[in-house]
Specification:
mainly alpha, 81% helix, disordered C terminus
Length: 350
Amino acid sequence: MYGKAVAPEYQGALTTLSVNSSLVDVLATGTEQLRAAERAGQPGEVARCGLAVAEAHRRLGQVRDADRAWKASYRAARDAGDTAAMAWALWSGGTLARQRGAFALARRLLGLAAELGERGGDIVVRGYSLAGLAETGRIQGDYEAVGRLHEQLLAEARRRGEARHTVWALEGIAQMHRNSGAYDRAYALFEEAAQIAARADDRRGHAWALRGLADVVSVRDGDTERALALLSEAETTCRAMNLTSALAYNHKMRGNVHYRAGRYTEARDLYEQALAEFRAMSEPRGEALARLGLAKSLARLGRDRTETAAELADLARTLERIGLRHAREMVARAEEELGLDTRRALEAVR
C-alpha cells in the first residue's frame, strides 16, 4: 500500500511544500527562506533551503543558477557538520551533471552522495543517489550493469511503500524494456507506474508515465491519436508545474509520434521547438535526440542527401562524445532507414 507522494528534497522550513508545487513557487519560497536562514546564521538551514533552490533551478532548466546553488548548499552543510545535508547537495549536483551530459561527473558525485547518505544515516538520500547512478547507466544504454540495481531499488521502494520512488523505478525498467523491443512488458510497467502515481498524487511521475505509454502506443499499436491524447494530458501537468525539461521531452516525443505516422511537417516543427527548448536549458542529450528527429524529418521532406548524411555523421560524433550508447544505435538505424552512408560524409569533413 502506498501513501501520498512526498518530496524529501524539500527540507527544513520547506517541508510543507508539496511534491506538486509549481517550481516557480518553490524557487520563490526557497529563496526567501534561504535568505532568512543566512541572516540568522543557521548554516544547516541554509543548506537545506539551498537544496530546494538548486532543484527548482535545475528543473526549470536554469543550469548555471542550479550549479551555484547546489555547491553553496554543500558548503553550508559542511560548515554545519551535517553529513546527510552534504549528501543531498551532492545528489543534486550529480543529477544536474547527468542532465548536462557530464556522465562521469554524475557518477562520481552520486557515488559520494550514496556513501555520505549511508554514513549520515539517511536511507532516503542513499536510495535517491543509487537511483541516480542507475538512471545514469540506463541513459547511457548500459542495461546489463544497471538492470539489477533498478530491480533492487524497486523492491526496496515497494517494501517501504514509497510511491514516488516506486514510480521512478518502474518507469526506468519500463524504458529499458521499451528500448529492447519488449513493448508489452514496457506498457504494463508504464501503466502500473501511472496508476500508482495517480493514487499517490505524484503529478510529475504521472506525466512521465503518460509519456512512456504514449511512446509504446505509438510504436507498438500505431495509434497516433491516443498517443497524442496521452501527451496532451501530460503536457497540462508539465505546464502547471513549470516542468521545463519534462515539457521539452514531451514535445520531442510528440514529434516522434507524428514522424511514425508519416506527418513529417508536423514532426519537423515539433523537433525544432524541442531543440530550441533543450538548447535554452543546456541539455545536450535532449538536444542531440531532437536533432536526430529533425534530421530524419527534413530528409523525408526532401533535404539533400549529402547534407543529411553530414548531419548524421556529426550527430554520431556528438553522441559518442557524450557517451550515449543507445542513442548512437538510433543514429545507425536512421542511416539504414534513410539509405545513407555516413562514412563518406565523415571523410568529406575531415
